[in-house]
Design goal:
The chain is mostly helical. It has 10 helices and no strands.
Length: about 190
């Protein structure tokens, strides 16, 4: 079970260096350490998105949730990748849910942010408002998927282009290697 703090730390390390080689090494190292079920959400987050697509959370909603907290951030990292992914799933389920959905969204966000340490909350904030900007969006994460799985970069790029979904391609690369990637087509 990978702590979300490891994802936040990797994102911060990637953002702190201008070295493409350093960014790639940090990303590939994290991807190698992830459990299979953690790969898809983490690749999506590191690419600046979420596997659920639109989750209906923007700047104002996050600011409202933080205001509602009225408490200090968590002192110890306890959030797991799976727990954060499940929270994103619940948030996505509230999109267009009608009356009470804004309150439910703020409540869900407040619960997530209450458990987040400052670096985790920073990454969550940036993901929610679409401002990841750590210098490693999809192109570099694609390269990291290839490196983490010992696969030719061209194979991973081809599969990602044809599938249009890098997180799924990362999962295929880990589970089935070059053979699985070769099966990706139009």
């Amino acid at each position: 079970m990978t702590r979300f703090a490891e994802v936040a730390a990797t994102s911060a390390a990637v953002g702190a260096t201008r070295s493409r080689t350093g960014k790639l090494a940090a990303l590939a190292d994290l991807l190698r350490r992830l459990e299979d079920d953690e790969l898809v959400p983490t690749v999506a987050w590191l690419s600046g998105g979420a596997p659920q697509g639109r989750i209906g959370v923007g700047w104002a909603t996050v600011a409202d949730a933080e205001r509602d907290l009225g408490a200090e951030p968590a002192a110890e990292a306890t959030l797991t990748v799976g727990e954060v992914d499940a929270a994103f799933e619940r948030l996505a389920g509230l999109v267009g849910a009608g009356a009470g959905s804004n309150t439910a969204r703020r409540t869900e966000l407040a619960g997530l942010l209450r458990r987040a340490t400052p670096p985790e909350a920073d990454l969550l904030w940036r993901l929610f408002v679409g401002e990841l900007r750590h210098g490693a969006l999809e192109g570099l994460v694609t390269d990291a998927v290839a490196r983490a799985n010992g696969l030719p970069l061209a194979d991973v790029r081809r599969a990602a282009m044809l599938a249009g979904d890098l997180p799924t391609v990362a999962s295929l690369a880990r589970a089935g290697g070059a053979e699985a990637l070769a099966g990706v087509g139009l």
